[in-house]
Amino acid sequence: MGRREMREHIFKLLFLGEFNETEEMPEQIQLYFEGLSDLQPTEQAYMENKYALVKEHLEEIDALLNEKSAGWKTKRMSKVDLNILRLAVYEMKYDEDVPVKVAINEAVEISKSFGGDDSASFVNGILGKIAREDL
User: Fold this and answer.
1) pLDDT above 80 (res 96)
2) 3-class DSSP assignment, residue 35
3) ∠ CA 77-79-81 to the nearest 5 degrees?
């Protein structure tokens, strides 16, 4: 499984977290992974770890998103766009293995697949502003 596909699964886990209690998520994550065929233990470990790291930095990530998204606080964003942005901001700020341009490009691609008509430009705009001003 490639990084892009794993990134999509991490996004889906973050999205799943919007609709489940924190205590339920370990079981939900296991059920999610059981539904994936040909999943290697190293891939599952990578995705679980990155999911946990994003959740660990959620307060800082959301504060940055609220600061940079004029007129669109995280509470008003679609859950799809919000979780795409959360993953991308984590990668941009905290994951040294992912170049900023790759994080932005991957987020835009995920938003084209899972978001609404304006999601790609919305995600690109916010991430571009963060890259210019904060990194």
Assistant:
1) yes
2) coil
3) 65
Structure tokens of 108? 């835009």
pLDDT above 90: percentage of residues in the chain: 90
**H-type alpha helices, 1-134:** 3-16, 25-34, 41-56, 58-68, 79-94, 100-114, 119-134
Angle CA 88–84–91, to nearest 5: 15
Rounded to a whole number, what is the largest CA-CA distance in the chain?
Answer: 43
Residue pair 47/88 in contact by the 8 Å Cβ criterion: no
In a 13 Å sphere around the CA of 135, the CA atoms on its Cβ side amount to 20
Amino acid of residue 70? A
CA distance 5 to 8: 5
d(CA 116, CA 90): 22
In the block, which residue shows the tokens 């290697």? Answer: 40
- Once rounded to an integer, what is the mean pLDDT over residues 47-76? 93
